[in-house]
Amino acid sequence: MEAVPKRPLDRHVHGSQHTQTTFQAHPRVAEGAGMTTAGKAPGLAQANLIAIPKDWAYDFLLFTHRNPKPCPVLDVLDAGETVSALKPDADVRTHAPRYRIWEHGELVAEPENATEHWRDDLVTFLIGCSFTFETALTNAGVPLRHVEQGRNVAMFVTDIQCRPAGRLHGPMVVSMRWVPESLVDIAHKVTALMPSVHGAPVGAGDPKMLGIDDVHAPDFGDAVEPEPGDVPMFWACGVTPQAVLMKSKPPFAITHAPGQMFVTDMPDFAYRVG
Amino acid sequence: MEAVPKRPLDRHVHGSQHTQTTFQAHPRVAEGAGMTTAGKAPGLAQANLIAIPKDWAYDFLLFTHRNPKPCPVLDVLDAGETVSALKPDADVRTHAPRYRIWEHGELVAEPENATEHWRDDLVTFLIGCSFTFETALTNAGVPLRHVEQGRNVAMFVTDIQCRPAGRLHGPMVVSMRWVPESLVDIAHKVTALMPSVHGAPVGAGDPKMLGIDDVHAPDFGDAVEPEPGDVPMFWACGVTPQAVLMKSKPPFAITHAPGQMFVTDMPDFAYRVG
Description:
Chains A, B: It holds the Pfam family D-Glu_cyclase. The first copy, chain A, is an alpha+beta fold.
């Protein structure tokens, strides 16, 4: 498996090159392929993580309500709390494989352990992740090309602007999966039943309708190769808060690294309706 | 149609009689039967409403996240805002048929127009209402006894405690519908697909499992008569915030009156998944 060339993270986001530079300072992550929890915890719900100062927590919680497709909230901890009811034996500062530390919208570090960056005024949010519906897709006969190829899912910043909330604004991020054309309908149906982990896709077919120029050059995660007859399907993605951090520049935040999720103890079935 | 005798609103809530007294001061509402938007706006989503001072908004928003069954949020306005995107031509202070004004957990007035009680620090929340799935139930062949009888739905305070958030805590309220036993499964299936308007029922059959002593003596709304072979089904209810107000006693709040909802312009189908 070869490393996938990275494009600037901020291609659509703030148009400068510094994030690229920051990334080159973290070669292990910049290596790209394979650094993911996708396919590693079948049957369990996985979560995006963002911890933000209490002073920004209302704006963020409001943002999630106004943008439920990319930001379905699974849990909110009290300020300073480090254990979620969704994974009682784990510390939210260490359980994800890798974290990102943000200052004023800039990515400043990507540690495996976020404890030394912790502050007691941080409010941690766990947000649904589309990896949670991948077991259901598999059970329905939908192949997962990124898992087959041992890669992270491909994620893209779209030209869809989220609905702002207080000081927070920014574009929606989506994950992309190659799906055989004959299975697009079933993939839609299976995921629509799991709205807490992003639900139905926001688009399928033409990446340009989401403002995505090149489906082989993701903004986050890995490029994934299609099989003949595959079409791209796009789901709202819990990396959206990271695009919002870049745009809105709160003074401090901690997130997981894209694709390197907080794996919960919750069965994926708990997030299925009907 | 005869008026339904009221039991103290606070039967399970704070154990005193004053709410009963307050109710007697509002005879038009105390008349009970028929004062409802149930069945009056088929195909449109209806919403519960609560406006609470900005200082309490984070606690409330967190409460809704921690209790998504009774409190699925459809919209959150900014402080002082009086128009929701879900009903752009209406004022949230006048569009519901009747409001409740709360001070320190006490019901102090029930006006048809809440404008004179408005404060610019109020943050308005619109919360999903189970009336929204009633058209889907009808379409699936499930009769609605309360609509047939021209009554409000029956609502009960349960012994299920919600998950607290900040200063807010209190019991879950449920709505009850009589459903022919042969249609219980389809009623479950239809409503499970609409999680934003309370989703699947929280119980069916024995009211005692929810701490409800007498299914003919609701805490809010009207008593509804079953037909032979009907069993009671219970759904989490957006009147829960009112039970929480009684218990948690924030200094001020405005809500709709139970069953007299804020009718939106949104098609009910918008809140259906799958």
